[in-house]
Design brief:
The chain has a domain of 77 residues. Helix content is 66%, strand content 0%. It is flat and about 85 Å long. The model has no long low-confidence stretch (mean pLDDT 78). This is PhBC6A51 family helix-turn-helix protein.
Length: 149
């Protein structure tokens, strides 16, 4: 498959969610997805597309564009996932790399980091049975002042 055919396949995959896209929008998906590889700035991409930078930024903020970019990037790497996974397993086993093993287990959902949260909460029990309405209002005011500090 030629590079042009590959790019066309990526574009088609990316625009499944956006069948009514204009040509410049399809090209924007490709250029935004490959931006890290080609080191293009938003200004350069906008100039390449013949649109303003503001238009490009507004286009990029749309949720369906975000999804199209994810689809495009997934289509670019999906064929490589088995090879990458195999390389990670080989590295973790053959080289005894604990970080690679940890990542494999995390990806498989077999390892989840837990974080304990400790809280030092002081509880004060206030008996209201023998308090007057003025005492209760004063206590509420005192508690409000403490929470505002």
């Amino acid at each position: 498959m030629s590079k042009a055919d590959s790019i066309q396949r990526y574009v088609e995959q990316a625009i499944i969610e956006m069948p009514d896209m204009k040509d410049w929008q399809k090209a924007a998906i490709v250029l935004l997805s490959t931006k890290p590889d080609h080191k293009m700035t938003y200004e350069q991409i906008a100039e390449e597309l013949g649109i303003s930078t503001v238009t490009l930024y507004q286009f990029r903020q749309r949720s369906e564009v975000h999804q199209a970019l994810l689809n495009f990037n997934l289509a670019r790497v999906i064929d490589r996932i088995p090879a990458v996974t195999e390389a990670m397993v080989k590295k973790s086993v053959d080289r005894g790399d604990p970080l690679a093993a940890k990542l494999i287990f995390q990806i498989a959902g077999l390892l989840v980091e837990r974080r304990a949260v400790e809280a030092d909460v002081k509880t004060q029990v206030v008996s209201v049975a023998d308090k007057t309405e003025d005492d209760l209002e004063a206590e509420l005011a005192r508690l409000r002042d403490r929470t505002n500090d």
